[in-house]
Amino acid sequence: MKYAASLLVMAALAGACLEAGAAPSEAQLRVGRGIVTSTCAVCHTLERGAGASEGPPLFGVVGRPVASVAGFNYTAGLKQSLSGKTWTAPLLDAFLTDTQKLAPNTGMTYFNDDAATRAAIIQYLSTLN
What does pTM read for this prediction? Predict the structure, then answer.
């Protein structure tokens, strides 16, 4: 329980840093890494040069055009909803809040109403480049 409370505090701090544009601390990145490796990595690869899995690779996702990984079969819903956009922190935040609301009929179903958790995920993903 003490560990879970610590994770929540660190996720909240990560959210504050993302909003303020401050660089995350190592502790905040550890929280993000823990969330990403236990949740996102179930369907996505995280390593440079790794191919797609059930979802496209997340290495380099921040700053990458949406639906642009060669060879991955993106859904029409994602392509139609986010065509011409780039994965920025605000767009990732909106997507992780409710994937189906932002991109109806996309293949990914994920929703998280905790801004601090989403911020921790995005901060860690920002380091994968």
Answer: 0.81
